[in-house]
Amino acid sequence: MSQQVRTVESVRRTNLAHLLRTVHLHGPQSRAALTEQTGLNRSTIADLVAELGRLGYVEEHSPGPSGLVGRPSPVVAIDPRVVAIAVNPEVDALEIAAVGLDRGIRVAERLRQDDLLTPAETARLVAECIGRWRGGVLSEARIVAVGLAVPGLVRAADGMVRNAPHLKWIDEPLHDVVADATGLPVVIGNDASLGALAEHLFGAARGHDDVIYLNGGASGIGGGLIVNGMPVGGVGGYAGEFGQNRPGIATFADRRARDGVLEDEVSRSRLLSAVGLTRADDRELAAALAAATAPDATAEIARERSILATALANAVNVLNPSVVVLGGFLGILAELDVDGLAQAVAAHSMPACAEDLQIRSAELAGDRLLIGAAEAAFEAALSDPAGFSADPGGFSADPGAPSDR
C-alpha cells in the first residue's frame, strides 16, 4: 500500500471515528448538524454515515416536521443493538448490565453475595448472565466488549488486578480469566477512575476540564482525576487513590483507626452502624441518614463530614479543580448539606484554589460505575470503528474494509 493511499485511508478512519464519537456523546444528529460540527462537506458526511451504517454502528431516521423550507436532513442515531457488558464486582454484590452505545441501559442485575467473590466466580457469573441475556433481551444485540470497574489497583498495561484489598485479590489476571470465560474483548479499570470518566462525559462534571472525583462504596473510597479534559492514570494506571491518604484529624477523640487512612475514618459501614443498619442500598442509606436524630448517629455523620472536608481541601490545594464530584455514600453525605460542606472545604483550602469551586453529587447515581465501565469497553470501537472487531456471535467490522494494520 502506497504512502498516499495510507494517508487517505488514515484520514477516512479518523473521520469515521470522529463522526461516531460525536453521535455517541451528543445523541442523534442531523446530517446538516454533523456537517457544521465537523467542517466536512455534505457528500463526505453522507459517505461516512453510510459506512458507519454498513459497519453496524448507526442508523438513519426521517426527521420530524421542522417548518423550514427545503428537504429536511436525515437524523443519524446510534444503532440500539450495539452494547457493552459492564461489570462492577463489590464485597457484597456483583452488578452487571448491558449498556448501549446510545447510553441506554438494556438490562441490569445486582447479584447479592454472602461471601467474597473470586476472579473465577466473577468470570463465571458474567458469562452466565451474557448467555442468559443472549437467549432473551439481548437476542439481537451486538456485544462490543466487557468492561469491568474494579475497586482496587488495576495495571493499565494488561488489566492485572494488582491489589483489590477488600475483595482480597492480589495480582489476579482478571482480564484473561474473563476473556476466556466470555470469548469477548475485555477492558478493566479502577472503579472510581471509570466513575470519573462517566461523570465527566455525561454527568455532574460535564463541561468541566479539571475535575476531582471521589467514589464511596462498600470497598472504601477511590478517586479519579480529569486534568485539562483528559483522564489522569499515572505511570501504572494507579492515580487517584485518595482513600489511601491520611487526612488531618483535629482531635484524638475524632480518630477511629490508629494511623487510619481516609477510607478507614470515612466509612459506609460506620454510617450503617450509626443508624442501626447492617445492609442497605444507597437510597435506603440516604433516607436513614436524613432521618437520623439520635446523638450518636448525628455525631458520627458530623465527624465524617468534617474529615471529608479536610481531605477534599488537601486535594483542592494540590489540583485546583473547578468541580469536585462525590459518588456513592460520599454523595449522600454531601447532600445532607452541600453548602455547609463547600464552606468547610473552603475554610481549609487556600482562598485562590477554592475560588468558584463547585461541589456536586454524582448525577449518574447508581449507574455511574457501569456507564464508566461501558465507556472503557466502547473505546476501541470509537477510536477505530472500521478496524475494530468484537463479538463473534454478531458484531464485527466489515471484513472487506481496507486496513493499514
TrEMBL record:
The keyword Transferase applies. It comes from the Bacteria. Transmembrane segments: none annotated. It holds the Pfam family ROK. InterPro entries: ATPase_NBD, ROK, WH-like_DNA-bd_sf, WH_DNA-bd_sf. Coiled coil: none annotated. Keywords: Kinase, Transferase. One of its GO terms (molecular function) is kinase activity. The keyword Signal does not apply. Belongs to the ROK (NagC/XylR) family. This is NBD/HSP70 family sugar kinase. It comes from Microbacterium invictum.
